[in-house]
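thread: overnight batch results

M.L. [08:02]
morning all. the overnight job finished for the chain we discussed friday. pasting input first so we're all looking at the same thing
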Amino acid sequence: MPYTVRVRGPLARYLLAHPNEDLRRRLSMLRGTPYPQGSHALLTDVEWSHLASRFEGLTVMVYGTSIEAVVYTYDSAQNLAVVELAIIDGQVVR
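M.L. [08:03]
and the structure it wrote out:
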């Protein structure tokens, strides 16, 4: 069964108002697989691991670089990926 990808409302509105081709490409790839090549666990990311405390008990992944990335949770039991945050120009966007 295919899984669902959701983007949090405020973040989706931000991305629609401020188009970013790099993040759109990443979102497109994420729709195809919950673990695209280049994604990694948030806890293993030296620069962004401090964000993990916001998502206790969830599998949290980063897909991208420290400059441009999406941060998402994945629940395999529900077949659901939720894009929680974006990193744009090295800053967290919610």
